[in-house]
């Protein structure tokens, strides 16, 4: 998995804000591997620290419409799913 800076993520999203997005998250105790999929089939992957508040803030900041979020079902994924749902995702 490639590590990407926030500026790379912003550039990836920039021209496709109006379409639906799909997000996959591999949730681990020490890090999360995230994949963003655009409708044109392009995908960006990155690793981020396991911080649900920061992740939700970053998703909102992107200003994208999310079609689905898939996460790893397990003890670390369940609390993230609840937080995402509570935040309106």
Descriptors for this entry?
4-stranded mixed beta sheet; 30% strand; 4 strands; 3 helices; 89 residues; alpha+beta; Nucleotidyltransferase, domain 5
How would you briefly describe this protein structure?
By secondary structure, the chain is α+β, with helices and mostly antiparallel strands.
Description:
The chain has a single domain, classed as Protein of unknown function DUF3822, C-terminal domain (Nucleotidyltransferase, domain 5, 2-Layer Sandwich), CATH 3.30.420. The relative contact order is 0.23. The radius of gyration is 12 Å and the shape is globular. The chain has helices at residues 6-14, 52-62, 75-86, and strands at residues 20-27, 32-37, 43-48, 65-71. The protein is an alpha+beta fold and 89 residues long. The protein has a 4-stranded mixed beta sheet. The protein has 3 helices and 4 strands; from the N terminus they run H-E-E-E-H-E-H.
Secondary-structure blueprint of this entry?
Blueprint: H1 6-14, E1 20-27, E2 32-37, E3 43-48, H2 52-62, E4 65-71, H3 75-86
Parallel strand pairs: 1-4
Antiparallel strand pairs: 1-2, 2-3
Strand arrangement within the widest β-sheet reads 3-2-1-4
The CATH C-level name is Alpha Beta
Number of contiguous helices? 3
Q: What is the β-strand count?
A: 4
Distance between the ends: 24 Å
CATH fold naming: Nucleotidyltransferase, domain 5
Name of the CATH superfamily: Protein of unknown function DUF3822, C-terminal domain
Uncertain residue segments: none
Helix content: 25-40%
Q: What fraction of residues sit in β-strands? A: 25-35%
| Structural class based on helices, strands and sheet pairing | alpha+beta
Mean pLDDT: 88
């Amino acid at each position: 998995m490639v590590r990407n800076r926030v500026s790379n993520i912003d550039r990836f999203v920039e021209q496709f804000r109006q379409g639906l997005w799909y997000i996959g998250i591999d949730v681990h105790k020490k890090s999360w591997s995230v994949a963003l999929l655009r409708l044109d089939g392009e995908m960006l992957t990155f690793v981020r620290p396991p911080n649900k508040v920061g992740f939700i803030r970053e998703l909102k900041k992107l200003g994208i419409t999310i079609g689905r979020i898939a996460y790893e079902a397990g003890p670390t994924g369940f609390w993230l799913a609840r937080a995402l749902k509570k935040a309106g995702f």
